[in-house]
Amino acid sequence: MAKSFSSILCVLIFASLSVLGCRHSAGDGGLTKIVFQADWYPQPEHGGFYTALAKGYYRDEGLDMTILPGGPYISVEKQVSAGSAQFGMGSSDKVLESNAEGQTLVAVAATMQHDPQGIMVRKDSPIHTFADLNGHSIAIKVGESTWFEFVVKRFQLNNVHVVPSMMNVANFVADPQYIQQAFATSEPFFAHQAGVETRILLVSDAGYSPYRVMYTTREYVQKHPEIVAKFVRASLKGWKDYLNDPTAAHGMIAKLNPALNAEWMQFTWQQLRDGHFVAGEDPSDAQLGQMDPKRWTTMYEQLVDLKVISKPFNPTIAYTLQFLQPQ
């Protein structure tokens, strides 16, 4: 990337403050102000939310929406639990883990049916399955990768060496043997730009398949179900539009995050579509936003088996289907 981390962060903070100042000015016509905490800086993986914002879908529902950028030092779960944001985005396994820790988070809709997270290797690598990772070093985001604990246990990876992920592809490009955690929607683009073709072993193919979700707290659902319903409706409408045409979202994202370029955003959008990450395999988009209780139960049982959850609880407290239209 052309800009340093610190300079990008300064631009994003300035942009966020500008948005906040604008969205919280007087004369909003009685709209209900809500804050949505993103899990990272503005990017195409957030495209549905920015589409809904750009096209006025939240405003049409009577909501004055502010999207706050995330980053490496922001805990979305803690922001929502503390009431600093009414809604947040994350993964269903993290929502379950947060409930195990005493937070009252509840997922209200799926943002993605499949997680684009995985392990990236070179296209000509002899590694074709997770079992092939034994005997290799892998760059992982240490302390935040429950999915990797699952992979290690399921495939009996007794001889892997974990090194901290550097959050870029520099080492991957420099070292043909380098293996790293990656998102199918992002890192392969930068490797390709550097002349290196890749393959991704998706974690969901290993049997660990969290949803990407939007969530709030149980208290907020109980007190403001009508606001939650409006937020979910507008967001899913935005995601449906984004999959058909990303123009509105990408225009807004590019202004908020100048580190992105049009080619990168187009790559991510295409991967989201081709990989069926957002809407699932049903071409009718009937799966958009939907959540299956069986998948939540399976995820809960996997976390218990990994001892990530040590005190049992009913996993149904971590999600609700009341704001989703039956399919």
Briefly say what this structure is.
The chain has 327 residues and is of the alpha/beta class. It has 13 helices and 10 strands. 39% of the residues lie in helices and 17% in strands.
Topology readout:
Layout: H1 5-23, E1 32-37, H2 47-54, H3 57-60, E2 63-68, H4 76-81, E3 87-91, H5 92-100, E4 105-112, E5 117-122, E6 137-140, H6 146-154, E7 161-164, H7 170-174, E8 180-183, H8 187-193, E9 198-202, E10 212-217, H9 218-223, H10 225-244, H11 247-256, H12 262-274, H13 293-305
Parallel strand pairs: 1-2, 1-3, 6-7
Antiparallel strand pairs: 3-10, 4-10, 5-8, 5-9
Radius of gyration using CA atoms only: 20 Å
Q: What is the topology, as strand order, of the major beta sheet?
A: 2-1-3-10-4
Poorly predicted regions = 1-27
What is the CATH architecture annotation of the largest domain?
3-Layer(aba) Sandwich
Order of helices and strands: HEHHEHEHEEEHEHEHEEHHHHH
Instruction: Output the CATH class name of the largest domain.
Output: Alpha Beta
Within CATH, the superfamily of the largest domain carries the name: Periplasmic binding protein-like II
Q: Approximately how much beta-strand content do the residues carry?
A: 15-25%
Classify the fold: give the CATH topology of the largest domain: D-Maltodextrin-Binding Protein, domain 2
- Give a quick account of the main beta sheet: strands, pairing sense, barrel closure: 5 strands, mixed
Question: Overall mean pLDDT score?
Answer: 91
Number of domains: 2
Q: Number of DSSP strands?
A: 10
Helix percentage = 25-40%
Q: Between the first and last Cα atoms, what is the distance in angstroms? A: 42 Å
